[in-house]
Design a protein that fits this description.
- The complex is a heterodimer of chains A (57) and B (582).
- Chain A is mostly beta strands and 57 residues long.
- Chain A has no helices and 3 strands.
- Chain A has strands at residues 4-10, 16-21, 39-41.
- In chain A, strands 2-1-3 form a 3-stranded antiparallel beta sheet, with no helix packed on it.
- By secondary structure, chain B is α/β, with parallel strands linked by helices.
- Chain B contains 16 helices and 26 strands.
- Chain B has a 5-stranded parallel beta sheet with strand order 9-16-10-11-12. In chain B, strands 24-23-25-26 form a 4-stranded parallel beta sheet, sandwiched between helices. A 3-stranded antiparallel beta sheet of chain B has the order 13-14-15, with no helix packed on it.
- The longest helix of chain B is centred in the middle third of the chain and has 20 residues, at 325-344.
- The chains are: A mainly beta (57), B alpha/beta (582).
- Chains A and B meet through β3 of A and α13 and β26 of B.
Chain lengths: 57, 582
């Protein structure tokens, strides 16, 4: 299983960062800047493939 | 609690142990030769063999995977040679069923295999061996009868290097844990070599030598006095001389701050240990959790170090964490005592704080069974969930997860906790910070801040729950509905949760709440999450100061908007009123 980086945002200081997340070995989240545990896992935006008719001509 | 039905597979031996007298005539005539697993493949065994010299019962077994076949009998030479008529080709695996009151899990660990990453040229250089192979080579019962020789030319090596932490303390290989036993095993090996072959030069390449434990530091000092060189630094490169089979090792000596080169006759990789590969299956059978390194998690690291989270299950040895023989024996004794105490109790007293499921309200979704860290909720698809009260620890994760309100936590009901929330926010809610604190850590952390006379704003109001996982989404929303500017959910640190892994549910729930608040146009930062241990009074005070700063940024308009956004919809309100009337 590849370990992917996930985006996080600290809800205390607003710092945004990415961190590798191993789903099987979940660790305590902590903001690297302010050390708060109020760290929100952000939804990764997956770029979608545009349909042929949407491509610029 | 306890009361397990265990089905045990008793594997077929194909040799009657009561008739076999271990004469060995069968093995002499057996034509099938296989690498001997006990000797780490350094010698061979036959298909019919005794696994190791001290095996009990001392009788041969037939490895049917190596045998030429029993259906039909392809060879039959062992049966012809056996005067005792002990060979039985028709033997079959037997399933034995037992009712037991306690289970002790002592499945051990596996040794790291350096072939998968070709660590230090293990697969390419014949004179690079593992510490397990070293054990067999120097053992009097080993393949060379204790004559220590190197594999390439069967000559005695005069210069031997030991490399520590192979497959341990290595984040690159996703093995960050210390295997605990390797340092002292190497120290013991160097002393053995110094005793058997005083002219041998030993070099140990290490990161740290961890020689804690009774008599271990003394052993380490004796090893150094016996002439073993200890170089702080792990080799970066090993090159083999094809003509002699010798190994050239380059290492940065971090103590001296220079690059050193050694020509060695043999290199021993001090391999670490790892959890058994089938641990997940045992974990599933007994509802056990694993720590981040893959070993089994105990019920509590300090107070219940041999108890599994599932009551009636205990741990002994490596499966819980890497440990030496002495610690394994201690843990095994403790596990046996704990099991004995349970079996002899007759009646068991349990805490009254358990969950109760109303079968009429249960929607049979099974979410409660999924989140219970103790496996105390029995559920099958399409059936009402039931609680095994003897196994329930009362964390409340199920009660907070149940969407139909079918679960009541005795003595910490939703109504009682919501009443507390309404009471603390009844007067001037805009000046208050609503804090949900777990009983064991965060609440005690607040106590610590108080008794240590630490200064922090008086705006916080604490609602105590047994676990942070008891705090449902509805409780947090109720606090916002009552006008709370800021809500904090706090609990034990991840590894210290007093309900094994219940606080993982807290994280998921708070993540969902942040999303939900954002969708409703409410600033999600107003909900905070912190892990505060009982000793972290300063952290509790610091968090309270930070939350007070945050509270000051929340405007009256924001609170009014929150109340409006979270106001129950009429249909839901009617349903709620009807439920209350019932």
């Amino acid at each position: 299983m590849p370990i992917l980086s996930q985006p996080f945002r600290c809800m205390a200081c607003g710092h945004e960062y990415e961190e590798p997340v191993d789903e099987e070995r979940e660790r305590e989240r902590q903001c690297p800047r302010c050390r708060s545990n109020s760290v929100r896992r952000l939804k990764r935006v997956v770029p979608t493939q545009p349909k042929p008719e949407e491509l610029p001509t | 609690m306890g009361n397990f039905t265990v089905r045990i597979r008793k594997k077929a031996r194909y040799v009657d142990p009561t008739a076999c007298n271990a004469c060995g005539e069968c093995a002499k005539v057996c034509p099938q030769v296989r690498p001997d697993e006990y000797q780490m493949g350094l010698s061979a065994r036959k298909a019919i063999y005794i696994p190791f010299p001290q095996a009990v019962p001392c009788s041969y077994i037939l490895d049917m995977e190596s045998c030429l076949g029993n259906v039909p009998i392809a060879c039959g030479k062992c049966a012809e040679a056996c005067e005792q008529n002990a060979i039985n080709y028709d033997d079959r695996d037997e399933i034995v069923t037992r009712e037991v009151g306690a289970v002790i899990v002592a499945v051990g660990a596996e040794v790291y295999d350096p072939t998968q990453d070709d660590e230090y040229g293990y697969t390419r250089f014949r004179n690079v061996i593992t510490s397990m192979e070293f054990e067999r080579l120097i053992c009097a019962g080993g393949p060379t009868c204790g004559e220590f020789v190197r594999p390439s030319d069967l000559q005695r090596p005069k210069r031997i290097g030991f490399i520590q932490c192979v497959g341990s303390r290595n984040p690159r290989l996703n093995r960050p844990w210390c295997s605990n036993i390797c340092c002292m095993n190497t120290v013991k090996d160097t002393l053995l070599l110094a005793d058997h072959y005083p002219d041998t030069e030993n070099v140990v390449f290490y990161q740290d030598i961890r020689s804690f434990g009774k008599g271990f530091e003394d052993m380490f000092q004796r090893s150094k006095e016996a002439g073993t060189r200890y170089i702080r630094g792990l080799p970066g490169e090993i090159v083999e001389d094809p003509a002699t089979g010798n190994l050239r090792v380059t290492v940065e000596n971090t103590t001296a701050g220079r690059i050193e080169r050694f020509e060695l006759d043999m290199v021993v990789l001090s391999v670490g240990v790892e959890p058994p590969k089938d641990l997940a299956r045992i974990s599933g059978l007994l509802t056990l959790s694993k720590t981040s390194d893959g070993f089994f998690m105990e019920s509590h690291p300090k107070l219940k170090p041999v108890d599994a989270p599932t009551r009636g299950v205990f741990f002994a040895g490596f499966c819980e964490s890497p440990k030496d023989i002495k610690d394994s024996v201690c843990q095994a004794g403790a596990a046996a005592s704990r099991a004995g105490a349970l079996l002899n109790a007759g009646r068991i007293r349990i805490e009254a704080i358990t969950s109760h499921i109303d079968p009429a309200a249960c929607t049979k979704c099974g979410l409660c069974a999924q989140v219970c860290p103790y496996g105390a909720i029995r559920w099958k698809k399409g059936e009402v969930a039931t609680v095994v009260e003897a196994a329930c620890a009362g964390c409340g994760a199920c009660g907070a997860t149940c969407r139909s309100g079918a679960i009541t936590m005795r003595h910490y009901t939703d109504d009682q906790l919501n009443a507390q929330v309404r009471a603390i926010l009844g007067d001037r809610p805009q000046d208050k910070v609503c804090v949900f604190a777990c009983n064991w850590c965060s609440y005690a952390g607040g106590d610590m801040a108080g008794i240590s006379r630490m200064a922090y704003p008086a705006s916080n109001r604490v609602v105590r729950t047994l676990c942070s996982a008891r705090v449902s989404e509805e409780m947090v929303l109720e606090a916002f509905r009552c006008g709370a500017p800021v809500v904090l959910v706090s609990g034990c640190h991840y590894a210290d949760c007093h309900y094994i892994t219940a606080n993982r549910q807290t994280v998921k729930r708070v993540d969902r709440l942040w999303d939900r608040l954002e969708r409703l146009g409410i600033r999600p930062e107003r909900l905070q999450l912190e892990w505060i241990s009982a000793a972290e009074g300063p952290k509790f005070a610091a968090v309270m100061r930070r939350l007070e700063d945050l509270r000051r940024t929340v405007t009256a308009e924001e609170i009014a908007h929150t109340r409006e956004a979270l106001r129950p919809k009429p249909a839901a309100r009617i349903a709620r009123a009807a439920a209350l009337q019932e």
